[in-house]
Amino acid sequence: MPICVAATAMQRMAHPEGETATVRATKSHALRMKNFDTEELAFSSKQGYGEDSGLAVYVSQAIDASITWEDIEWLRGLTSLPIVAKGILRADDAKEAVKRGVSGILVSNHGARQLDGAPATIDVLQEIVAAVEGKVEVYLDGGVRKGTDILKALALGAKAVFVGRPVLWGLAYQGEDGVKEVLNILKEEFKLAMAL
Known about the structure:
Blueprint (H helix, E strand, L loop, with lengths): L2 E3 L12 H11 L3 E2 L4 H10 L7 H8 L7 H9 L5 E3 L4 H10 L3 E5 L12 H12 L4 E5 L5 H9 L4 E4 L1 H31 L1
Parallel strand pairs: 1-2, 1-6, 3-4, 4-5, 5-6
Helix pairs in contact: 1-8, 5-6, 7-8
């Protein structure tokens, strides 16, 4: 199924089990989740790992906020793991990201929270897919609410979509079971859209 669960912060504000409930729900649907490794998350939730460690302060001081294209090349030199650039909304940026060595592009406007004037991701998807000329996979994040949204994204060239807010709504409604229900609805709507 071409659905992934997007990284969303503070899931415990929606439900006491937070990310743990979401991971369990995604595993039951055999979907991917873009947050933590599931084993690491399961271990940390049992152990209270990292609580009050001050790690957030250390990390925020250790990372330079002025990210440049050279950082992709630097990261590529450190790992053979896939690097996916998130937040690409323009064809020229997509081309540059490919030139710098990314393995994929996640077309995202970050939920339109950072810049309220950012374009809808579905509106720029086709031009970004064309710009990368099949050299890397392209994913879509943002605005996916129905199965027809998934179908449209795939028709415009996305390999898969990432879903964030609907998962949080399901989590707030009924925890793990709520997330399962949201994912089930999306899957069934997508199947129906494909059949039509």
